[in-house]
Amino acid sequence: MSLPTVEDALAIILDAIQPLPFEMVAISEADGRWLTADVLATRDQPPFDASAMDGWAMQTADVAPGAVLTIVGESAAGRGFADSVGRGQTVRISTGAPLPSGADHVVIQEDAERQADRLFLRGSATAGHIRRQGCDFVKHDRLLAAGIRLNPWQLALAASAGAATLTCGRKPVVAILATGDELVEPGQSIGPDQIFNAGAPALAAFTARHAATPIRLASAADTDDAIIKAVTAATFDVLVTIGGASVGDHDRVKPALRSLGATIRVEGVAMRPGKPVWFATLPDCRLVLGLPGNPASALVCAELFLAPILARLQGATVESRFQTGFLTAPLAANGPRDHYLRARATPGPDGRLQVTPFPDQDSSLVTVMAAANALIRRQPHASSAEAGAAVSVLGPTL
Ligand SMILES: Nc1nc2c(c(=O)[nH]1)N[C@H]1C(S)=C(S)[C@@H](COP(=O)(O)OP(=O)(O)OC[C@H]3O[C@@H](n4cnc5c(N)ncnc54)[C@H](O)[C@@H]3O)O[C@H]1N2
Ligand code: MOO
């Protein structure tokens, strides 16, 4: 039986997902969250004609080298001048303060000299320095569109519109279950045939970076009972299992989930690494993503499947995150499966993204994963590629 492609598998997975309900999120907590309702402007910004500089407000007709004006008050940021500015008059004004009525011009303070209540304009005085009402945005503008992932600058825009809370997809709770008799938590004593659990901390961090809440479950032994017990005791929207996905005698995760009524919707994908990855839904529609145990396989599958799952659950439209990069080293022809090579991506001197694949692509190598910040995608049967050739790249990530 031929395995589905990554695209086909992802389509099956996304089709099985209903976004979680939205929730109101305080703006201070909203960085990295998915916005699910537009943010509209409720007023103009700036809400009044404002001075762009510290200086003096006056009428244009009074701006002339050597002119002498009478100082009649002040317009400070947050506290404007209540009266009108007439001919021959001026008002001290700060950056961001409302332009008083009657005035239509600001002279910067470097171009004038104050003596008591008199202001003398220098020859260098020029017109301008006013930010017009609504030059940034106007009432009813759509400032932020539903579907984006919020960043600090977009939060500044929402705050400028006075939004204290934003409508975001609820954070999915992701239970992470590593399986295997060989696994020991870092910091615990370890036997000669055992290894430290590297996958679960990596997946927990990955999950948190995708605006979801990870819950680390204690690793389960390679028995149906242990896995069933761990899953039934946990609360989650998504269960991510690590290991036990393949065909060995001790690979018990799928059988255990099947006995809980799970429907396996994807069972293996034509990709390297990560071929044994699987996806299922529980009878109550909660999701299960089964990652292969090798660290690179687990993380590549997390990038390709878990990231879109978490985005979709939070109401986002899932888009390709690949871009074009240029090889610094040649690549051999690819085999029959999609290949995701661990690589280092850096901007080149010409501004183009340069990518260097690591020579050893064994999926068990944590050192290579830790040195990589990108994946190069090679299509099935892609022919050999010279240094300088364009390739498809996911990343760079931090
Ligand atoms: N006869 C076959 N054997 C294997 C196949 C196959 O098609 N036929 N597929 C291989 C591929 S590809 C992969 S990937 C692995 C995946 O196997 P499992 O998901 O069953 O993973 P395990 O056997 O449990 O572990 C594989 C490897 O990774 C280590 N591991 C597991 N969990 C962790 C963890 N949390 N932290 C660190 N390391 C972990 C584990 O000790 C193994 O060394 O199967 C191949 N076999
Ligand atoms: O493809 Mo496995 O996922 O090679 O390590």
Automatic annotation (TrEMBL):
One Pfam family from the record: MoCF_biosynth
Signal peptide: none
UniProt keyword list: Magnesium, Metal-binding, Molybdenum, Molybdenum cofactor biosynthesis, Transferase
Superkingdom per UniProt: Bacteria
EC number: 2.10.1.1
Pathway(s) per entry: Cofactor biosynthesis; molybdopterin biosynthesis
GO biological process terms on file: Mo-molybdopterin cofactor biosynthetic process
GO function terms (MF aspect): metal ion binding; molybdopterin molybdotransferase activity
Required cofactor names: Mg(2+)
Coiled-coil portions: none
Family (UniProt): Belongs to the MoeA family.
Function: Catalyzes the insertion of molybdate into adenylated molybdopterin with the concomitant release of AMP.
Record's protein name: Molybdopterin molybdenumtransferase
